[in-house]
From TrEMBL:
Extent of Basic and acidic residues compositional bias: 289-305
InterPro entries (UniProt xref): DUF5685
Disordered as annotated region, ranges: 286-305
Source organism superkingdom: Bacteria
Protein name: Regulatory protein
Taxonomic lineage: Bacteria, Bacillati, Actinomycetota, Actinomycetes, Pseudonocardiales
Protein species of origin: Crossiella cryophila
């Protein structure tokens, strides 16, 4: 599961944590209901923000919830999940952007996508996802053409980028796509006056996502000779950090102009967790950090890999790991294809080892205890 907004369980109070899970599960099941079981793999942490924004603008009586049955990711427990047009819009956006991410891997011949049979299947799958997302988007009054146009313009802009050119020219398609998605939440919620500030918040959110993705991939792309917007335009991490920090502030200011009925979860995710994501990813990318992959700490155990497998065997092992809950409940397991160590999904939302919140006392705004009381 991908995405930059991964709330630490100690920074959300019980009600906000439950709401966050409701939107995550709602997105997953909306993908299944509208687009099939395989589409659930497009579930991501950032996509659920769309569902959160819709609900935050609705009156309490309009907020849709339904019961969901047992799921391995919830320890086989049932729960209430977000339902309705907000979850469906989040599914549409997630599906289109996931298809774009897969297409990018195919174009770069990353990992298993370097194999022609896999690349062919991936192209067919992404085309089908885009078509289905378009139909659902039309039902919601959302034209997915703006998302697809952004995807199709990206390679051209990347090819035109060079040393000294603006990295923001490269992030523009992502900004446009996320801005359109954020703005449409106001339409669905019946608050058209929120479209302008939410479009701006979405635009800046897209900029942050694109830049952080580039920062995360920087060393790997450098080693593999793959295209990366930071390398292509020649900007350093300090400048990328400045752009992200400015965008985080811009998101906060834009949200202040929007009209919400309950902004607590929106504020937690798009004010505090977004800022935390920037801190976390740049800290991991710090060239001086001792835990860099190319400079491992001498006191740490060396990286160990499990067995590497081909496509068919890897798929079989992946299915076994999923249905035995290893991918969600195990603190650590090996990637079915590459053998690399992975962290179980359920263990990724406790970042206290990185954020230094010590379980509560030092959390930003102490939101794990009394709720956010800041004036931001």
């Amino acid at each position: 599961m991908f995405g930059i907004i991964r709330p630490c369980r100690h920074r959300l109070d019980e009600s906000l944590a439950a709401a966050w899970w409701a939107h995550l599960c709602g997105l997953c099941l909306a993908l299944r209901d509208d687009h099939g079981q395989v589409a659930r793999t497009a579930t991501n942490y950032d996509g659920l923000v769309i569902s959160v924004l819709v609900e935050a603008q609705q009156e309490s009586s309009a907020k849709a919830r339904r019961k969901a049955g047992p799921c391995p990711l919830r320890g086989m427990r049932g729960t209430e999940i977000a339902n309705g047009e907000g979850a469906r819009l989040a599914a549409v956006v997630s599906l289109v952007l996931a298809s774009a991410k897969i297409s990018d891997h195919v174009a770069d011949r990353d990992g298993i996508f370097a194999a022609r049979p896999v690349a062919g299947v991936a192209r067919t799958l992404t085309a089908r996802w885009a078509q289905r997302a378009g139909r659902t988007g039309a039902d919601l009054g959302f034209d997915t053409a703006v998302l697809l146009d952004a995807v199709h313009r990206q390679p051209e802009l990347e090819a035109a980028a060079g040393l000294g050119s603006s990295v923001l020219a490269v992030t523009e398609p992502t900004e446009t796509a996320t801005g359109a998605a954020f703005a449409h939440t106001a339409v669905i919620a019946g608050r058209p006056h929120n479209m302008r500030p939410l479009r701006e918040a979405g635009r800046l959110f897209g900029r942050i996502v694109h830049l952080l993705d580039a920062v995360e991939d920087l060393e790997e792309d450098r080693a593999n000779g793959a295209w990366n917007p930071l390398l292509a335009t020649g900007i350093d991490l300090a400048e990328a950090r400045r752009l992200c920090d400015d965008a985080v502030l811009g998101v906060r200011l834009a949200l202040k102009e929007a009209d919400f009925t309950d902004q607590r979860l929106v504020h937690a995710l798009l004010a505090h967790e977004l800022e935390q994501a920037v801190r976390r990813i740049f800290a991991q990318a710090d060239p001086q950090a001792p835990e860099r992959p190319d400079s491992p700490n001498k006191h740490e155990a060396p990286e160990t890999k499990g067995k590497q497998r081909g496509l068919i065997m890897g798929c079989g092992v992946a299915a076994l790991a999923f249905f035995t809950c290893q991918t969600c409940c195990a603190s650590e397991y090996h990637d079915p294809w590459t053998g690399e160590r992975k962290e179980g999904w359920c263990h990724r939302n406790d970042c206290c080892g990185d954020c230094g919140c010590n379980g509560c006392e030092q959390c930003c705004c102490q939101s794990c205890c009394d709720g956010c009381s800041c004036d931001c």
